[in-house]
Write a sequence for this structure.
């Protein structure tokens, strides 16, 4: 991880904080805008962001939108027309999603949620371009995070966006436009220390996972991880259990509502061993959990798009911000503690062991099916 000092980092909770900040930054763009997202929904939020991108392009900024061919497979035709009319460049990552093609490459998705504006403001997190509410009557909204970045790290975010855009454009037989060379912005006084870590399938296959494992190994007091789709491999589980055995308080905030049936029940097969090791597990039920964040010893933190599951850690393009700053870590930890107190249910170890046999059997059947699918994808040694 390449840490840079002198950044100003703003933690944004949920779309109600993220989208106004994103639109404000795009409305201030003068030269170059990149936006990457896995899902781009045809809803009020999608319209808000499309309008902002179009306004920036009409003002003369070079605007680039990269969406995933599976997550955004229903990208609205009216959005395409509006963006094309304004001069916004649009690329789709791996648009071939035919259900009749059984190739592992279909599972390699662009799962990053990243934005860069003039290399002076950037956003990295887990929030897709979609309304906060899955159900109009739902309250509160989906629980998720992003980070607004100012300072030297913005140049690295733009570099990451330029590299991916150029690669995808070349693969689509398009000539990427020339992009200006950027010097990092000056370090801000009393700024914060942070690093951008990306995952791809070439040079950075395990960078994010290794970042997590290093921080878990170094933790001495507390580890708090909130992850929506928690299905860790053996190495990750053992790292958490070793931390608990040496006296570290290890807390997991996981999805309590059933969103993806197989993943939900398969992951619960792992809970017994984690609880036996002294790890606390809290299931978030107030709304859908979509966060992918962690806090270590209330001094270091991670916010990004990476789930602790084989698809994020082994297949998808991901981006996380790792932060070394006690104030930022304390703010994120306070939000997670509040979510656990007001919206989550703790799993008592003894009560978990007394579950009916049929429930335990179903968890292990789902786990076995999930492992078979991982093996089918070519990662039977996922650990």
């Amino acid at each position: 991880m390449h840490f840079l000092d002198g950044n100003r980092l703003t933690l944004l909770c949920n779309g109600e904080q993220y989208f106004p900040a994103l639109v404000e930054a795009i409305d201030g763009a003068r030269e170059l805008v990149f936006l990457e997202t896995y899902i781009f929904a045809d809803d009020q939020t999608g319209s808000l962001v499309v309008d902002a991108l179009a306004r920036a392009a009409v003002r003369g900024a070079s605007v680039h939108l990269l969406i995933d061919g599976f997550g955004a497979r229903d990208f609205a035709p009216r959005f395409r027309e509006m963006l094309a009319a304004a001069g916004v460049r649009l690329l789709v990552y791996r648009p071939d999603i035919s259900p009749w093609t059984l190739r592992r490459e279909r599972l390699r998705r662009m799962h990053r949620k990243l934005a860069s504006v003039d290399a002076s403001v950037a956003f990295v997190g887990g929030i897709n371009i979609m309304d906060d509410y899955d159900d109009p009557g739902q309250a509160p909204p989906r629980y998720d995070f992003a980070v607004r970045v100012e300072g030297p790290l913005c140049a690295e975010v733009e570099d990451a966006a330029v590299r991916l855009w150029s690669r995808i454009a070349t693969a689509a037989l398009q000539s990427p436009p020339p992009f200006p060379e950027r010097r990092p912005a000056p370090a801000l006084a009393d700024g914060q220390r942070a690093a951008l870590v990306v995952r791809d399938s070439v040079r950075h296959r395990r960078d994010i996972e290794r970042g997590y494992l290093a921080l878990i190994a170094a933790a001495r007091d507390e580890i708090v991880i909130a992850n929506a789709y928690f299905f860790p491999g053996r190495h990750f589980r053992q790292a958490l259990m070793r931390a608990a055995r040496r006296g570290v308080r290890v807390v997991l905030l996981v999805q309590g509502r059933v969103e993806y049936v197989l993943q939900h029940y398969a992951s619960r097969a792992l809970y017994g061993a984690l609880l036996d090791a002294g790890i606390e597990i809290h299931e978030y039920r107030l709304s859908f959990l979509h966060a992918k964040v962690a806090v270590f010893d209330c001094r270091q933190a991670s916010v990004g798009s990476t789930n602790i599951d084989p698809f994020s850690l082994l297949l998808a393009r991901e981006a996380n911000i790792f932060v070394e700053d006690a104030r930022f870590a304390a703010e994120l930890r306070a939000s997670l503690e509040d979510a656990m107190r007001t919206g989550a249910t703790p799993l008592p170890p003894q009560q978990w062991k007394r579950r009916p046999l049929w429930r335990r059997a179903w968890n292990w059947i789902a786990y076995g099916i999930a492992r078979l699918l991982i093996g089918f994808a070519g990662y039977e040694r996922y650990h």
About this structure: The chain has two domains: 4-190, 195-375.
